[in-house]
């Protein structure tokens, strides 16, 4: 989710429930295993591999640390030791140590990259053991999960959203599984790997206060002039999500253009390259495009710190980009991470988090929350050619970062949106552990302009997903991750939205808590019979990666979406740890073969 940070870089050249279940642990674990973290550290400016070994915290165990001298020596030859590189790296060291050291916990790498947030090395395709149950045939295909995984351990401030994108994919075929972890080979990743040290700054965590911002901007400009990197070729991380449309699979981060990726026949992840749709897509696009399951069209947008602050666009069923629709009625730069579509409209939430470079003058971040701002929802016809039909509705206190779904009722006179509302938006950037997200149903009467809202659950829920066949139409079931606290996900709950139409009571009807020390990520729904129009909406499986912090073991778990306890019907032991990340996507076997 390089979203918050990287949008700003474009200024450079270029849980209580009505159904209560006790915690359900994962299937029995193997005996306590060794937990291994391996990261590459860039320092003055060599590359070192540090391996830290810890055992399960059941007794007074000592920690061991070792340095791989052989790997260190072999890496030195890869480091750019030219005079410009040495000078700029020295300036970076001065800035990171004296001008803007990582004092705040939210940008201190020792805190942000602790435990299972720490990065892992790439892993080539490796066969996995199915240790519980059997994998359903409808899971033939591949599940991908994107997330931040910094190539180099940061020397200065680092935010969770700043890491290089890494894809973790499990390829399933005829009940067998192969797992692979690969970096998205972005321009940023590639030039920094060749140089042996970071080049492009962590914009979100690095531009705080006028002095630090000016210093880092000067070093960045110097690197550009010295030919160390060309911002025109992209500065994004591709670390947020994935999307499949037009028979292509994209790794996405909203600071840059999409990167096309594909899966080799052996399960390896290959980055094809940065994609501009024949020169029709400029600068960047959202990490959350919406795909209409009927028309196969994709809808997207980009936002930024200069007018137009919002631009809407779409792609036809073959993936060809259509003309931009600039929206000038959004009069200030807002953080617009996600949106929703119905059959007739696109819905944009303008929230209290915005981009304000002037905040840096007072020592603040260029991305911050404005508690005095009145939030709005903007509706525009999804086939609009300009913004003349754009309508804005004030909805005070509605701060939506992720949208779950939207649809129309009453013959098109009413629009309904379901989304988590961030009740403590001021903590979103600095203290995610204090964030509480309440899933709400928002109803807009297009004739009267009245907006009605009510919560669907009291629990801290985010990363909500639905059966993809119900995008843009009325759906009944939602599957959400349980924040405990955010950004850790301690389990998954199932919401029945129809209950809110009766007496607006708690809508959770099923839950699966992963167990002590076990945390997962965003769930994803896979239909049992995706081509059967008569299948029940919840007839399928919910999948996710789950990590056990006690044993250091990560698993791919498959849950029965119809079960009142979301019973685990299959579990795959993964060959290495999967760090906590962001969004995922399941791609069916016939679509994998098209890549």
UniProtKB/TrEMBL annotation:
Keyword Oxidoreductase: yes
Record keywords, A-Z: Dioxygenase, Iron, Metal-binding, Oxidoreductase
GO molecular function terms attached to this record: carotenoid dioxygenase activity; metal ion binding
Cofactor: Fe(2+)
Domain of life, source organism: Eukaryota
GO cellular component: chloroplast stroma
Binding site for Fe cation: 288, 337, 402, 583
GO-annotated biological processes: carotene catabolic process
Region (Disordered): 49-71
Keyword match Hydrolase: no
Binding note for cofactor: Binds 1 Fe(2+) ion per subunit.
Family: Belongs to the carotenoid oxygenase family.
Official protein name in the record: Carotenoid cleavage dioxygenase 4
């Amino acid at each position: 989710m390089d979203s918050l940070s990287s949008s700003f870089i474009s200024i450079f050249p270029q849980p209580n429930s009505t159904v209560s279940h006790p915690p359900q642990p994962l299937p029995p674990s193997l005996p306590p295993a060794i937990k291994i973290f391996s990261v590459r550290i860039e320092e003055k400016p060599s590359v070192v591999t540090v391996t830290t070994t810890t055992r399960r915290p059941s007794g007074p165990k000592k920690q061991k640390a070792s340095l791989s001298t052989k790997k260190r020596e072999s890496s030195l030859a890869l480091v750019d030791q030219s005079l410009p590189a040495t000078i700029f790296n020295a300036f970076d060291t001065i800035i990171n140590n004296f001008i803007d050291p990582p004092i705040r916990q939210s940008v201190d790498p020792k805190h942000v990259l602790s435990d299972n947030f720490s990065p892992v090395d790439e892993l080539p395709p490796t066969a996995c053991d199915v240790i519980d149950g059997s994998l359903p045939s409808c899971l033939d295909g591949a599940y991908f999960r994107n997330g931040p995984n910094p190539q180099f351990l940061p020397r200065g401030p680092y935010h969770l959203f700043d890491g290089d994108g890494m894809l973790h994919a499990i390829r399933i075929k005829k009940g067998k599984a192969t797992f692979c972890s690969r970096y998205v080979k972005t321009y940023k990743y590639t030039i920094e790997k060749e140089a042996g040290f970071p080049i492009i700054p962590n914009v979100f965590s690095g531009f705080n206060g006028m002095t630090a911002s000016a210093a880092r901007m000067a070093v960045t400009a110097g690197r550009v002039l010295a030919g160390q990197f060309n911002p025109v070729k992209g500065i994004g991380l591709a670390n947020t999500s994935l999307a499949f449309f037009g028979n292509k699979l994209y790794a996405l981060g909203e600071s840059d253009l999409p990167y096309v990726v594909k899966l080799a026949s052996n399960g390896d992840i290959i980055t094809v390259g940065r994609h501009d749709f024949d020169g029709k897509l400029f600068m960047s696009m959202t990490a959350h495009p919406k795909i209409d399951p009927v028309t196969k069209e994709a809808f997207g947008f980009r936002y930024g710190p200069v007018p137009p602050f919002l631009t809407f666009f779409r792609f036809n069923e073959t993936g060809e980009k259509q003309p931009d629709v600039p929206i000038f009625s959004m009069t200030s730069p807002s953080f617009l991470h996600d949106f929703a579509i119905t059959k007739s409209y696109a819905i944009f939430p303008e929230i209290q988090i915005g981009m304000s470079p002037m905040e840096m003058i007072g020592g603040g971040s260029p991305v911050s929350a404005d508690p005095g701002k009145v939030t709005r929802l903007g509706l525009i016809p999804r086939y609009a050619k300009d913004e003349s039909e754009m309508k804005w509705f004030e909805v005070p206190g509605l701060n939506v970062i992720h949208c779950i779904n939207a649809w129309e009722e009453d013959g098109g006179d009413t629009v309904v949106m379901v989304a988590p509302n961030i009740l403590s938006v001021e903590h979103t950037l600095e203290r995610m552990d204090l964030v509480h997200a309440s899933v709400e149903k928002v109803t807009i009467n297009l004739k009267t302009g009245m907006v009605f809202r009510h919560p669907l659950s009291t629990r801290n829920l985010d990363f909500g997903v639905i059966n993809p066949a119900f995008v843009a139409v009325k759906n009944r079931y939602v599957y959400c991750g349980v924040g405990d606290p955010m950004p850790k996900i301690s389990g998954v709950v199932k919401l029945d939205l129809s209950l809110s139409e009766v007496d607006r009571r708690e809508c959770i009807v099923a839950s699966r808590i992963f167990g002590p020390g076990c945390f997962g990520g965003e769930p994803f729904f896979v239909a049992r019979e995706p081509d059967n129009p008569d299948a029940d909406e919840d007839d399928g499986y919910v999948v996710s990666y789950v990590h056990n912090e006690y044993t250091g073991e990560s698993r791919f778990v498959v849950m029965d979406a119809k079960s009142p306890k979301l019973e685990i019907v299959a579990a795959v032991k993964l060959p290495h740890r999967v760090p906590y990340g962001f969004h995922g996507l399941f791609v069916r076997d016939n679509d994998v073969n098209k890549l």
